[in-house]
């Protein structure tokens, strides 16, 4: 009898865990159709490590992985690691969307970029 109860509880647990894991396989991530786009001027009012989305132009390279980004409201230094480009090539004339994290420093702020996307505008 104990073996039968053990076997039945094992079957129920395996069945439940399979159903739960199947739900995770079938679901995708959340895609917000109304992502808030920030401006450079808004960044001074935001907290350190804030998630930001900016649209503008990468004007020039400042150092190996540092660039000057600007939009209509101002400019800021952005750090884009080589692997974050993911094959995207842009010039100063191209409009891009950058997604990253605000890094507030003592003397200046910068964006640690996680994704660069070329916009068709």
Question: What is the compact description of this entry?
Answer:
The chain is of the alpha+beta class. It has one helix and five strands; from the N terminus they run αβββββ.
What is the first-to-last residue Cα distance? 71 Å
CATH topology of the domain at 40-118: OB fold (Dihydrolipoamide Acetyltransferase, E2P)
Estimate the strand proportion: 35-45%
Parts with pLDDT < 50 across at least 5 consecutive residues: 16-25
Order of helices and strands: HEEEEE
What is the number of strand segments?
Answer: 5
Class of secondary structure makeup: alpha+beta
Just give the CATH class of the domain at 40-118. Answer: Mainly Beta
Main β-sheet, spatial strand arrangement: 1-2-3-5-4
CATH superfamily of the domain at 40-118: Bacterial OB-fold
Helix content: 10-25%
What's the shape? extended
From the structure above, extract its key features.
36% strand, 121 residues, alpha+beta, OB fold (Dihydrolipoamide Acetyltransferase, E2P), 21% helix, 5-stranded mixed barrel
Structural write-up:
This protein has 121 residues and is α+β, with helices and mostly antiparallel strands. It has a domain at 40-118: OB fold (Dihydrolipoamide Acetyltransferase, E2P), CATH 2.40.50. The protein is 21% helix and 36% strand. It is built from one helix and five strands; from the N terminus they run H-E-E-E-E-E. It has one helix at 2-26, and strands at residues 51-63, 66-71, 74-79, 96-104, 109-118. It has a five-stranded mixed β-barrel with strand order 1-2-3-5-4. The longest helix is centred in the N-terminal third of the chain and has 25 residues, at 2-26. The radius of gyration is 23 Å and the shape is extended.
């Amino acid at each position: 009898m104990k073996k039968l109860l053990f076997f039945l509880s094992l079957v129920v647990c395996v069945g439940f865990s399979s159903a739960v894991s199947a739900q995770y396989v079938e679901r995708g991530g959340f895609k917000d159709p109304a992502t808030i786009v920030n401006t450079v001027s808004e960044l001074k009012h935001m907290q350190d490590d804030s998630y930001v989305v900016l649209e503008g132009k990468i004007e020039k390279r400042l150092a190996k992985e540092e660039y000057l980004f600007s939009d209509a409201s101002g400019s800021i230094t952005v750090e884009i690691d080589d692997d974050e480009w993911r094959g995207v090539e842009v010039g100063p004339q191209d409009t891009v969307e950058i997604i990253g994290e605000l890094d507030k420093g003592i003397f200046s702020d910068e964006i640690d970029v996680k994704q660069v996307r070329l916009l068709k505008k």
